[in-house]
Design a protein that fits this description.
The complex is a heterodimer. By secondary structure, chain A is of the alpha/beta class. Chain A has 6 helices and 13 strands. In chain B, the strands form 3 sheets. A 7-stranded parallel beta sheet of chain B has the order 5-9-4-1-2-3-10, sandwiched between helices. Chain B has a 5-stranded parallel beta sheet with strand order 13-12-14-15-16. In chain B, strands 6-7-8 form a 3-stranded antiparallel beta sheet, with no helix packed on it. Chains A and B meet through helix 3, helix 4, strand 7, strand 8 and strand 9 of A and helix 3, helix 4, strand 5, strand 7 and strand 8 of B.
Chain lengths: 248, 311
């Protein structure tokens, strides 16, 4: 069984982003970029399935500018087998990403697509569900445990109130939550090896997908700030203040 | 045309999130119908019908909808979509799972986690873990959106009841099957609707201490218990208690952060609380920058002292 792992290049999770002063978006020039952390977890899970003999080949897909090849190389260095870069410029929305991935799935015929539950830039939390819908596949989102068993996959999901386990007929889409695994670091020899792994390129036109955005971003602003309040000297004073404020 | 709001519930009662999402849905301007899907959900439908301003409640009652799995729920909603200009749902885990499936089937780009209705086609939503707010205008013929409850006040309930109409639940799917749930049972209020939240961080040090320190204070205040991601990742608290961008987004009247440093990720989940209290022995903890009341003290001495003062 092949596994496809879509990965997104985003602003590194450790960077504090800045909104451009003219409100036209978030400053991306000269900002450190990295693989979306949830997608790293997806790559790791696919690798573990391959190591357990449940998968034969891990194909990593990224959609965006030419620099997304670096993100694919990161996944190849972790151990994925080959990459596909779908070149596209500008803002690519989850619906368009799902359509592009559907076209790739049609060619590659994977048994599983594993991807992050959301990207830490736009926080949409849509792509996996949309891909499952377009393919008419079952979906196991927000996974904290994934177990492949013959023609099925059992997915334990993080839901409001606790955990839920579903059993899906393969092929299926799984999206990863934080506690699924701890992604490995790529070793230097593997980083070198990754440079020789195959990386194909295609475009949205070649895949027959219209990736024009459907939502117009009118403005981007800083969130309304919150001022620091006062320091209190003791727990007793704290309780007294809260009583005065009427919340206790 | 009208708006269809999908109700979130736990199988027993209508969640507060639905009443909050209704406030946002009503701002779009169309009459709002509520869809209650599930198994044995008539009491939930009756509660939905009493929410102020609801035009009609649709009830789809059947075993296939028992756990609100995305596949049957999306099939149901797509079947109703012709009649509606707007399809909305609270941003609960069940709806975040199902609604993008609906949107893709309708070839519509979804707007996730709406925090403000600017105009009938224009909305605000947080991006980058709440570090920026984006205003988006939809060019779609139909709107599909999830609504962040913490950003809206709940619509009130009255004695008047909207008409309730039964509709057919979808058939069983072989592709996706519910195996089981492991839900936290608690007598405390729910995180999403609690008036007071007592939340613990990594400084608690262990699951035992987390419980031993937070439980008496939460019980005394009638509060829900929350946790930072660090505390959840360290195994001190179950994942469903996590407050933050990737956990629950809450806005109680009082949020008491104990031993929480205040990572951006956590702040994104609680900074809309009315009053924030931070107890931390580190004077440089970022949480103090947004706290209304800060107490620089070890939580292991501060919490017992607070309990003493509350007597």
């Amino acid at each position: 069984m092949k596994i496809i792992v879509p990965v997104k290049r985003v602003v590194d999770a450790n960077i504090k982003i800045r909104v451009k002063p003219d409100g036209s978006g978030v400053e991306l020039a000269n900002v450190k970029m990295a693989m979306n952390p949830f997608d790293e977890i997806a790559v790791e899970e696919a690798l573990r399935l391959k190591e357990a003999g449940k998968a034969t080949e891990i194909i990593v897909v990224s959609i965006g500018s030419a620099t997304c090849a670096e993100t694919i190389r990161t996944a190849l260095a972790m151990g994925a087998d080959r990459g596909i870069l779908v070149k596209a410029e500008g803002r690519i929305e989850p619906l368009a990403v799902a359509k592009l991935l559907k076209a790739i799935v049609a060619k590659e015929e994977p048994g599983l697509v594993i991807l992050g539950k959301q990207a830490i830039d736009d926080d949409s939390n849509q792509t996996g569900q949309m891909l499952a819908a377009l393919l008419d596949w079952p979906q196991g989102t927000f996974a904290s445990r994934v177990a492949v068993d013959g023609e099925h996959v059992e997915v334990t999901r993080e839901v409001d109130g606790g955990l839920q386990t579903v059993r899906l007929a393969l092929p299926a889409v799984v999206t990863t939550d934080l506690r699924l695994n701890e992604p490995r670091y790529a070793s230097l020899p593997n980083i070198m090896k990754a440079k020789k792994k195959p990386l194909d390129e295609t475009t949205s036109e070649a895949l027959g997908v219209d990736a024009t955005p459907r939502l117009e971003v009118v403005a981007t602003r800083e969130p309304s700030g919150r001022q620091a309040g006062i320091k209190v000297a003791s727990a007793a004073e704290l309780v007294a203040k809260l009583k005065t404020a009427g919340v206790l | 045309m009208a708006t269809l709001l999908i109700a979130d519930h736990d199988g027993a009662k209508l969640g507060d999130a639905t009443a909050k999402a209704l406030t946002a849905a009503a701002l779009v301007g169309h009459p709002v119908d509520i869809l209650v899907a599930g198994e044995n959900v008539h009491a939930i439908a009756e509660a939905a019908a009493r929410l102020d301003g609801v035009a009609k409640v649709l009830v789809a009652d059947g075993a296939t909808l028992a756990n609100l799995l995305a596949e049957p729920l999306a099939e149901l909603v797509v079947g109703l979509a012709d009649r509606y200009a707007v399809i909305a749902a609270p941003a609960s885990s069940a709806m975040k799972n199902a609604l993008p499936r609906v949107a893709a089937k309708l070839d519509v780009m979804q707007i996730s986690e709406v925090t403000a209705v600017v105009a009938p086609d224009t909305f605000e939503r947080p991006i980058y873990a709440g570090n920026a707010i984006e205003t988006v205008r939809s060019r779609e013929p139909k709107l599909v959106m999830t609504i962040r409850g913490a950003a809206f006040t709940a619509t009130a309930s009255g004695d008047a009841s909207a008409p309730i109409e039964a509709i057919t639940a979808p058939g069983a799917s072989a592709a996706s099957q519910f195996l089981g749930a492991d839900l936290t049972t608690s007598t405390r209020p729910e995180l999403g609707s609690a008036r007071i939240i007592v939340s613990g961080g990594r400084a608690l040090g262990s699951a035992e201490k987390f419980d031993a320190v937070l439980a008496p204070l939460a019980d005394k205040l009638g509060a829900a218990v929350g946790a930072s991601r660090a505390a959840v990742d360290s195994g001190y608290a179950p994942n469903d208690l996590q407050v933050g961008q990737t956990g629950k987004v809450v806005a109680p009247e009082l949020y008491i952060a104990l031993g929480i440093s205040g990572a951006i990720q956590h702040l994104a989940g609680m900074k809309d609380s009315k009053i924030i209290v931070a107890v931390n022995k580190d004077p440089d903890a970022p949480i103090f920058q947004i706290a209304d009341y800060g107490l620089e003290e070890d939580l292991f001495t501060a919490v017992p002292a607070m309990l003493e003062a509350l007597k």
